[in-house]
Amino acid sequence: MENLFVLEDIHNIGEDYDRTLLEWFKNFDAAWPSLRAKYGDAFYRRWKYYLLVCAGAFRSRSQQLYQIVMTRPGTSAPRGRRGF
């Protein structure tokens, strides 16, 4: 990244990500009746496990996710960052 980009901001969004995963599961679960015949119950169990275990990992803060904003040298700072 050095000499290629300017680090403008780094933010840990892991604290909020468990809610995102729970919403994804809620949507997946609601859509499941129309998907079941195509994908089968084993697929449902795997995705349910994956989404809910990941949500638990983010909620317990044993997993993190970072949003990184970078710009190229010589370009303006992203909107919202000017004046800081």
Q: How would you sum up this structure in a few lines?
A:
By secondary structure, the chain is of the alpha+beta class.
Structural account:
By secondary structure, the chain is an alpha+beta fold. 54% of the residues lie in helices and 15% in strands. It is built from two helices and two strands, in the order βααβ. A two-stranded antiparallel ribbon has the order 1-2. Helix 1 packs antiparallel against helix 2 (41-59). The chain starts with 5 loop residues before the first strand and ends in a 13-residue tail after the last strand. 4% of the residues are buried.
Order of strands, main sheet, comes to 1-2
Q: Using the alpha-carbon principal axes, give the shape.
A: elongated
Unreliable stretches (pLDDT < 50, length at least 5) are: none
Gyration radius, rounded: 19 Å
Give the averaged pLDDT, no decimals. Answer: 90
**Number of helices in the DSSP assignment:** 2
Give a count of the beta strands, DSSP E runs of length 2 or more: 2
Query: Helix and strand string, N-terminal first?
Result: EHHE
N- to C-terminal distance: 22 Å
Largest sheet: 2 strands, antiparallel
Instruction: Please report which band the strand proportion falls in: under 5%, 5-15%, 15-25%, 25-35%, 35-45% or over 45%.
Output: 15-25%
Q: What structural class do you assign from the helix and strand content?
A: alpha+beta
Q: What percent of the residues sit in helical stretches (DSSP H or I)? A: 40-55%
